[in-house]
Design a protein that fits this description.
The structure is a single chain. The chain is an alpha+beta fold and 673 residues long. The strands form 5 sheets. Strands 1, 2, 6, 7, 8, 9, 20 and 21 form an 8-stranded mixed beta sheet that branches. Helix 3 runs parallel beside helix 13, helix 4 crosses helix 5 and helix 14 crosses helix 18. It is globular. About 2% of the residues have low confidence.
């Protein structure tokens, strides 16, 4: 009985467990972030999960971060989210990816102690005020007819009033966030074996999809997968190339940045091996047994993390593919075989391991599998992650078509913030794609939609040099502080950091050395730098690729160290910047020209973003628009011309038509002079 005539009758017919401001359905990475953000903002919140033992589970590779994903984690942290803080306490291997490619694409990545990450997250959630955790399957969304809005003809016709569990218990709330991940009507596939199940052998959510259909929310179906897990004792790791931890591990959370007390939990190696021609031959000889090609799997899988057998079919010229062997915890011998994702029958999986160096006779702890699941078409959402057709209903995470823990957590944080703001009658927080990867992620999903599991990549961000992993706090801390998601202490710490950076940049511009002095000339030559006559500021010298900020500390012939930090003193009386601050100074100088160009491009981008489209704008009368554009714009209700232009099916010519129409409307509404 999802349609409710009135709440009084509902309370007479059903057991109502409690009344809340907000209900979050699903306690994966999206649900945890959503629930914590909402509770911190003062909303009485309850978080449901099929089992509390799987809260914040990592059914695929237990790592946080990666290319572009590391930027998302740092942005989540800057906005007051919790993923970075928990990850810093539980990572066991760290690498900064793309370190040879430049600052724009540097991305932190860390392997997690999987079960301890889950336990620490659960322990943290249990301490959050205004937040209840509850184990139950939510089977129905309860709703009523919404009041008519003559002033806004495109307003939602339905409104959420709560949820009902599979046990028939009702929980009331004015807002609900659904974050069910890959559990909706999910089925696990290995060869010709198909089992109704969620990931990791957990129960599927078998009823909520029907409730979404009753609300006329468009659904799609995707597929993802995972490799087998192997017992470490059965692997010949000494024969393989080792990938050590970076020399210096770096935290995700800005709270731990430059801290003298923070230390990683462990710094373990990973190992690298490769598939062989024998692997390729085995999989192609059995390709008719693959669910991907036998017709068992009908849904679309991830393009950027395909099954191994799919790689060999789609890239026939590739004779081998790399395999990373990664630990999953300190108290387990379980090894994750990244690169061997497959849903082949178990005998093929077993034989496949024997074809790979270091894996001969490997002992499997878990089979690889594919999983199919229902999800929303994300174009039914607006940029606040609210379902446009249902008041008070929000969605986040893999349910919106994304893949990955980081993408899920980022959406969950924004959905939690905006659900509370909606309850309070406030404008939503919209993170522009020019400000954060979070903005790129949400805008891509909502404006463009996706026909496959969406993965965040640096190439998706037009202004990635401005959206670096090191400056997420500069971009987002003010928003978090104004919302109330970070403390006064943390905000002041952020402000002090950038005061030191700005002061040092100014000092470097005004402090000069004479290249004709023998001591200075000798130091420059030792750094492989030219020694033309004249005076040079430290700022000018730092523009040279062969000179680093650290090496500058030896250039002053009068002192062994340059006074760097005007605010913080060490015992010896010398002033220094922390490593992250020094890095920011160097990046700001070395990339100054590129940053200037990117800022100029950003100005042009913001011209379209600033041209808002009224919520009641009627596209149906604009016959100059293409029929597809009229249909898409009417359905998706973009906030501005920039977003309108990113909707699939809306051409630049359509945007020009819209611009003219908006100008005409504005003239009509302007009072006579």
């Amino acid at each position: 009985m999802p349609l409710i005539k009135d709440l009084k009758s509902l309370k007479e017919e059903k057991i109502v467990y409690g009344e809340y401001d907000l209900i979050v359905v699903g306690a994966g990475h999206a649900g945890c972030e959503a629930a914590v953000a909402a509770a911190k903002l003062g909303a009485k919140t309850i978080l449901f999960t099929l089992t509390l033992d799987s809260l914040a589970n990592m059914p695929c590779n237990p790592n946080i971060g990666g290319t572009a994903k590391g930027q998302l984690v740092r942005e989540i942290d800057a906005l007051g989210g919790i993923m970075g803080e928990i990850a810093d306490q539980e990572f066991i291997q760290f690498r900064m990816l793309n370190s040879s490619k430049g600052a724009a694409v540097l991305s932190p990545r860390a392997q997690m102690d999987r079960t301890h990450y889950q336990r620490r997250m659960k322990s943290y959630l249990e301490t959050v005020e205004n937040l209840e955790l509850f184990q139950a399957e939510i089977s129905d969304l309860l709703w009523m007819e919404a009041e008519a809005r003559p002033d806004l003809p495109f307003a939602a016709r339905k409104k959420i009033v709560g949820v009902e569990s599979s046990a028939g218990i009702v929980y009331l709330a004015d807002a609900v966030i659904i974050t069910c991940g890959t559990f909706l009507a999910s089925r696990v596939i290995i060869g010709d074996s198909v089992v109704a199940s969620g990931p990791d052998g957990l129960a599927a959510a078998n009823h909520l999809s029907d409730s979404l259909r009753e609300l006329e929310i468009p659904l799609k179906r995707f597929k993802t997968g995972t490799p087998s897990r192997l017992h470490k004792r059965s692997l010949q790791l000494s024969d393989l190339a080792q990938q050590p931890n970076d020399e210096v591990s770096k935290p995700f959370s800005y709270l731990n940045e430059d801290s003298s007390t923070w230390q990683p939990k462990a710094e373990l190696p990973c190992w690298l091996t490769w598939t062989t021609e024998e692997t390729k031959r085995l999989l192609l000889d059995n390709i008719d047994r693959s669910p991907l090609y036998s017709g068992v799997i009908e849904s679309v899988g991830p393009r950027y993390c395909p099954s191994l057998e799919d790689k060999y079919v789609k890239f026939p010229d590739h004779e081998r593919h790399h395999v990373f062997l990664e630990p999953t915890g300190l108290d387990t011998q379980e090894i994750y075989a990244s690169g061997l994702s497959t849903s082949m029958p178990v005998d093929v999986q077993r034989d496949m391991l024997d074809t790979i160096d270091g894996l001969h006779g490997a002992e499997m702890l878990r089979f690889g599998y594919a999983i199919e699941y229902d999800l929303l078409d994300p174009t039914c959402l607006d940029l606040s992650l609210a379902v446009r057709s249902v008041e008070g209903l929000f969605s986040a995470g893999q349910l919106n078509g994304s893949s990955g823990y980081e993408e899920a957590a980022a959406q969950g944080l924004i959905a939690g913030i905006n659900a509370v703001r909606w309850l309070a009658g406030k404008k939503p927080v919209i993170i522009e794609r020019s400000r954060a990867y979070i903005g790129v992620l949400i805008d891509d999903l909502v404006s463009k939609g996706t026909n496959e599991p969406y993965r965040m990549m640096t190439a998706r961000a037009e202004y990635r040099l401005l959206l670096r992993q090191d400056n997420a706090d500069e971009r987002l801390s003010k928003i978090a502080y104004e919302l109330g998601l970070i403390s006064e202490f943390r905000y002041q710490k952020y402000l002090a950091k950038y005061r030191r950076i700005r002061t040092e940049l100014e000092r470097l511009e005004t402090t000069k050395v004479n290249a004709e002095e023998p001591a200075v000339r000798a130091i420059l030559e030792s750094l492989g730098s030219t020694t033309k006559s004249g005076s040079f500021s430290f700022y000018e010298l730092l523009k040279r690729p062969e000179i680093s900020y650290e090496s500058l500390a030896t250039i002053d012939p009068e002192r062994p160290k340059i006074v760097l930090d005007p605010d913080r003193h060490e015992a010896a009386g010398e002033r220094v910047l922390g490593p992250s601050e020094a890095f920011a100074v160097e990046i700001e100088i070395k990339y100054a020209g590129y940053i200037k160009l990117e800022l100029e491009r950003l100005e042009r981008f913001q011209e379209l973003e600033s041209r808002e489209i009224p919520a009641d704008f009627d596209y149906s009368n604009l016959t100059a628009l293409s029929a597809e554009a009229r249909q898409k714009l009417s359905a998706q209700r973009p906030l501005n011309l920039g977003q309108a232009g990113r909707i699939s099916g809306v051409s630049p010519a359509d945007v020009s038509v819209l611009l003219v129409a908006l100008k005409a409307r504005r003239r009509e509404n302007e009072p006579d002079a």
